[in-house]
Task: inverse folding
């Protein structure tokens, strides 16, 4: 779905992406209510539990996609055509944002778990 948003552009793929993220947020919420600590395995180890952070990130992604759909989203090529320096700084920012999201979903839960572990005397 994200590929169609990048390649085709337009409001329809953006709305579909927003609905997909909302659906996944609902799925993770339901999974957490039925089987607390159930593994998600979406990012990181396969036994990583589905946590609230997954829900928050998916709701944020759905919001961004919905806001994009409300505007006039263009394809990636059309967007890059209007950027300075052939769009290289823009693409770098997109890669940094995607990498940051991956870190939030993988490293942040590990950091929180390590902070909660009792320290040895």
Result:
């Amino acid at each position: 779905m994200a590929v169609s948003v990048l390649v085709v552009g337009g409001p329809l793929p953006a709305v579909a992406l927003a609905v997909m993220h909302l659906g996944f947020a609902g799925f993770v919420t339901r999974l957490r209510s039925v089987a607390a600590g159930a593994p998600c395995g979406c990012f990181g180890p396969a036994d990583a539990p589905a946590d609230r952070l997954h829900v928050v990130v998916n709701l944020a992604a759905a919001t961004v996609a919905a806001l994009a759909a409300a505007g006039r989203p263009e394809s990636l090529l059309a967007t890059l055509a209007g950027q300075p320096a052939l769009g290289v700084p823009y693409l770098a920012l997109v890669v940094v944002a995607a990498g940051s999201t991956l870190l939030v979903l993988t490293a942040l839960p590990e950091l929180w778990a390590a902070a909660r572990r009792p320290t040895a005397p």
